[in-house]
Amino acid sequence: MERIPPRLAAALALAAAWLAFFGPFLAADGAPFYRDQLLTALPLRQYLTERLSKGELPQWYPYEALGVAFIGQMQTATFHPFAWLLLPFSPVTALKLQTALAYLLALCGAYRAARALGASRPGSVAGALAFGYGGYAFGVSHNPSYLLAHATLPWVLWAALRLCVPGRLEPRRVAALALAWALVFLAGDAQAFVATPLLLLAVLALAPDRKRTALACAASGALALLICCAELLPAMVLSQSSIRVQGRSDPLLGRFFSFHPLRLFELAAPSLVPDELRVQVTTALFHSGGALWSTTVFAGSLVLLLAGLAIARAPRNALPFAALAAFALLLAMGAHAGLLPALWKVVRPLSWFRFPEKYAGLAWVGLAPLAALGFDTARERPRSSARIAALSAVAALAASFLLPALVRRLAGEAGSAAAEETARAWRSGYLWSAGFLAAGALALRLSGGALLLPALVCAELLHGNGAHLPVAPRAALEAALPFAEAIRRDPHRVVSLAGGHALRTVTGEDVHWAEVMRASLRPDASGAEHIGSLSFNLPLTQLRAWRALGPNASLRGQTGPLFDGCFAVVDMQAPDPPGATALIEDRAAELRLLRIPCRPRAYLSAMEPAGERGAAEGLRQGLAPGFTLWEHAGRAAAAEGSVRITADEPERLALEVEASADTALVVGDQLAPGWTATLDGAPAPLYFANVAARGMAMPAGRHEVEMRYRTPRLAAGAALSLAGLALAAALALRRRGTLP
Length: 740
Hints:
The chain is of the alpha+beta class.
C-alpha cells in the first residue's frame, strides 16, 4: 500500500478529529443554546438574517431597553464574513454551523501556526488539538462572537510568524496579518483585538530582525484598524454615551469575572466545579463572589506534559510562548493577581472590558505551539519522556487522594452536600488525568507509539471539555410561546420581572432551562419574538436608559410603564403589581403574564423642564398622569389631541399628530446619537424626555412627524473599510516589496 503523503495525513487527522465530535453535533436535530447562545446570539442572528434577506442593513435594534444601536455593537458581527455566508440558513442552523466552523477554523489555524514555528506535522496536529479542543475554546462556546474571535487568534499568530522569515519583506504577509487581526474585531471581540499585541510580542522575541518585524506588525495593525472602520467608527461615537464607558465600573469586576487562582488546578483535571453547583461552590470556594465565566479551563494533562517538555528541551522557541501563557493567566486573574488593576490605572480603556478571564484565551495561543514542540521532543527522546509521563501520572494519582480533603475544607461553607460533590469531582478529574498520563507513558514506550499521542490528546480533551457544548432540540428553540402570541395581538413592550427559577443556569441538555428563559421574555430572547423587553444586555445600551430604568434595570417594574411597558412576566407566586390584570399562566415555567397600567408608546403631554438628574429623581418618585419632564427650557401645556403611528420601522417612525393647542409629543423610545426628526418635512429638534425618551415641541393643528436613524460615522467608516480592503488586496497581489 502506497504511503500517505505527510501533508495529506495531517489533513486527514485534523478532519477526523473534527468529525469525531462535530459530525454527530451537525447531524443531531438540535442546536447550541447555553447562556448567550440563546439569550443573545440567536435573537441577533435572527434579526440580522431577516433584515439582510430583505436587502436592508440593520442599524437599530428596537427589542432591548428603549432600543439600541445595532452597528457599532460589535457582538452583532454585522460585517464578519460568516454573517453573510450563512444567510441561506435559518438562524438556528446558522448558529449551529458557525459554532462548528469556528472550531474547524481554530484547528486549522493552530496547525498552520505550529508549522510556521517549525514543528513537525504530527506535532502540529497535537498543538492544533490543544488549542481547538482546549478548555477555553469549549468554555466560551456559550458566546459565539468570542468563540469566533478566539478561533481566529492562531491565524494572527501564523501570519505574524511569516513576517519573521529572513529576507525581503513580502507585502502579502503584511496584508495577511492585517486581515486576520481585523477579523478578530469583526467577529465581535474588541478585548481580544486590543490584547493581540501581547501575542505579537512573543513573535518578536523570535524574529531575527526585530526592528523590521515590529514595523511590519505596526503597519499590519494600522491596516487592520482601517479595515475595521465600518464597525469601529460607529462604536467610538456611540460608546461615549453608553453604560460601558460612561457608567461607573463595578469594583467587583476584577474579581467576579476573573480567573480565580484555585482554577489553576483545573488546567490539569476536568470539571472540578460541577456547573449545577457553581453558584454555591464558587461563593464558598473563591470567597469573593467568583463566577465561572469560562465554564471549563481544562487544558489537558497530556498537553501540559508536552508543554513542559518543550520548555525543558527547546527554550529558544518555547520560552516566549510560555511567557505569553503565564502573563495572560496573570491578567485573567484580575484583582487576584493585581496586574490588571494596575494596568487599568495606566490604560483607562482597558477597564471598559467586563471579563478579565477573557485574557486567558491568549494562554491557549501560547500552549498550542508548546504542545507541538513538546511532541517533537517526546518523539526524539521517547524513553526519558515516558519516565516523565509516568511520574506525572503518579503525581496526578496522589492529587486525586490529597486534594479532595482540601476542597472539603475550603468549600465547607457551601454545605456538606455541595462540598462532598465537589470533592468527588476533584477525585474523579485527577484520576482521569492520571489514566491519560499513564496511557501517554505507555505509548511513548512502544516503538513508534509517540504517534498515538495526538489521538490521546484528542480523546482526553473531548472527554474533559465536550460536555461544555450542550445542544437542545430545535423544537425547544423554535416552539411558539403563548406569552409572545398574546403580546403580539396588542403590541407593547414587556417588563420581565421573573427571577429565581428563571435565572437558574446549568449545563447539559437541560431543555427546560431553555424553555423557561424563552418564556420569561428577557432581553434579548424577547427579540426573537419581535417583542421589546425593558432591560439591558448589549454593551451599547445608553447610560440614560440605565438611569431611567435603574441600575441593572432594577427600577423597570416602577418606571417601565412610562415607556410603553404594558405587559409584565412574573413568577407564579409573585404578588400582582397595582392595577394588573392576569392574562396567561405557564405552569411548566412557573411564570405568569400580566397586563399592567402604562403610557402608550407615543402621546401628547404637558412638559416641565428638568435636568437629567432632576428627571431621574422625578421618575423614581413617580410622575403624575399626563405629566413629563424634559431637558428643554420651555414648558408645554396639556392639550387634547391624538397621535397615530403610520409607519413603524426600526430606523424610521412616522406619526400623524393632531393637537388642540401648543403642547409636546413624547415617544417612549431611546433618543441616541443618530436620531433626527422632521415636522411637516422641516427639521425639528428632539429633546430628552423622562431622562431617555424623545420629546418634541408640537404646535396646534394637524402635523406629520417623522423620526429617522442613521448610524453615526457609518458612511465614513464604510468608505475607510473599503479603502483598507482595497489596499490589502493590492498588497496581497504583490509578491515582494521594497522594504529591507
